[in-house]
Amino acid sequence: MKFNGFVHECHQKKVFKMISIYIVSSWIMLQVISVTWQALGLPSQSMTYLIVFLLLGFPTYIFFVWKLRLNRLEKIRVFVDEEGKPKASPFKRMYFSGLGIISAISTLTIFFILGNSITKATDIPVYIKSNKIAVLGFGNNTGNPKYDIVSKMTADWIIHGITENHLAEVISPEVISNYNSMFKSGKSNKREEAVVLQEHLQPSKIISGNFYLNQGKMVFQSTIIDGKSNDILISFETDPCSPGDSMSCIKDIEESITGYLATEGKKELMLQDDPPKYEAYRYLLEAKSTDNKKEYLELLNKSLQADPDFFEPKVLRVAYFYNLQNYREADSLLKLIKPDSYQNKRQMNLLNMYKAILQGNNKQVYETILKEFKIAPFDLQSNKTAMVVALQFVNRPEVVDKIFRAIKLDSMDFENCEDCVQRIYVKALADIQLKEYALAIQLIQKTLEQTKADLLSAPLITALVRSGKDPQVTEFFTNLEVSTSAMDLQRLYLVAGKEFILKGKSPEAKEYFGKAKALFPQTLDKQNLADALFGLQDYNHAKRQYELLHNAFPNNLEYLGKLAISNYASQHKMEAARNIEDLKKLRGDYQFGELDYILAEYDAISGNEEGVYRNLLKATASGFLFTPYAFQNDPLFSKYVHSKKFDSILTYWH
Prior knowledge:
Layout: H1 3-12, H2 15-36, H3 46-74, E1 79-80, E2 86-87, H4 90-118, E3 133-135, E4 139-140, H5 148-164, E5 170-171, H6 173-180, H7 190-201, E6 205-214, E7 217-226, E8 232-237, H8 246-263, H9 278-289, H10 293-306, H11 311-323, H12 327-336, H13 345-359, H14 362-375, H15 380-393, H16 397-404, H17 418-433, H18 437-448, H19 457-466, H20 470-480, H21 486-502, H22 506-518, H23 520-523, H24 526-535, H25 539-552, H26 557-569, H27 573-585, H28 594-606, H29 609-621, H30 644-650
Parallel strand pairs: 3-5, 3-6, 4-6
Antiparallel strand pairs: 1-2, 6-7, 7-8
Helix pairs in contact: 2-3, 3-4, 5-8, 6-7, 8-9, 9-10, 10-11, 11-12, 11-13, 12-13, 13-14, 14-15, 15-16, 15-17, 16-17, 17-18, 17-19, 18-19, 19-21, 21-22, 21-24, 22-24, 24-25, 25-26, 26-27, 26-28, 28-29, 29-30
């Protein structure tokens, strides 16, 4: 008999219908027992026994289908062999062959189940100690059963927060309950739950908690415990919330827990004792990774909206406005910041640092940033800031190398790391100040092999000019002229012109200042044009450009100062004197010695040597920075840089 014929005959004799009744009934029984076994007080192996019983019963049921129904139908037909003797029907032979196969499969399945479940019923698997975190159900201490659902909601929300942010693997309350049920008693209690956690699941941390009503308001408490020592690592308590708005409390406790888990391994880098809310910390990390200034401020503000007590974004906002030269806003924000505790030395140190910055006390800025550097020497931003302060605030280029070497270069991704490139920039400037030109050139060129960093072009030009590599300067600009924007090219021509003046190479200086001037029709940058004319010593035309700039920006000290110098140098001394008087009237807060520095430049062009030293000293004491364009790097002071008085100004903060 062919298989298709056998199937057709089974269908006619309703064999499949009778078998399906058994299968459906078995499935319903399994579903019912899976839901009710605990309520009925059945042992935890009830499901296993039932499956074994149903597997045993399946071939038995198929046999009785034949015995009670099909056998009667088969007796109606008589089958004989070639000798005329009675023989079994082809249908019967195929039916019992199928029954034999089903019996064998059922038997093998039963042995497999017994070998893996019943014989190991009391052998609870032991987890290897890892970063797994057990989240227990939150206790309902309100006395009202209607809030039981809040217990599950809280645990679920915490688990979601941990897993969504990839903070750890989670052992849920259901898993703990299932493992607990493997004990012979089948009853759950705190003692057996503790045994399961400590001896078998072995989580690294255990999160538990409860909630209660206080004057009609719901309050949540939570504790994170070390899974090995049972020591309490940290505890949280939410602000009260309405019972009808329990989700706000649940979100609050979840944010506190995930914030702690996200930052616990970075405790030495955190600026506060209590961990921030996770959302706030996430916004802070996003802010640190963006190069967009507007987005950076928006993310800092979002971080503070998520957690108003988060200290770090507060001080980063101060730094943001300081870097934009919006000193008044920076100072205003600084005054609003209060430390979590006056015993928190790191917070106090940072507040003192920004206070010193806004007061122009560069020595204190240096001392405080060195303390911060010692705490977090491998943090890119702290490291870079320490380098900048050492070089430009206190003119200590010899210190920069030690700070720089704290972070290995082979770990740098220059293509995607602006702070990394800025560290190279500061290190190169320090090497140049130490006259280690070859080191600066090598460092910059090696970095430029990995990324196109426009920031490094200026110090490379400076190092090449000061080391006398004029042909390489020419070659460098030849390459730049086919790949760089007119604006950037004009700026770099001005750098080269200034450096050649410092080297005493007037023809080369005029060449590059002339190139900068020639680009004005393309850039339309009036300041660059004015600076090019000033470098060419074409003071009559420079005077006109600075006058236009001063009229457009009357409070800009640099434009008015350069206008005064241009007037004096072009023999318009009365106008120059009026410019200086107007300049002195602009003296105000947050200038950090800029006005005194400009007066020193005017004294230099007018030949007032005593005024040069006096005003430079005042500028330094007020916090004027040692930039690549100031003091020894300013061509106006070329005749003074080798004097002892000038050297004492350069070492004022030492």
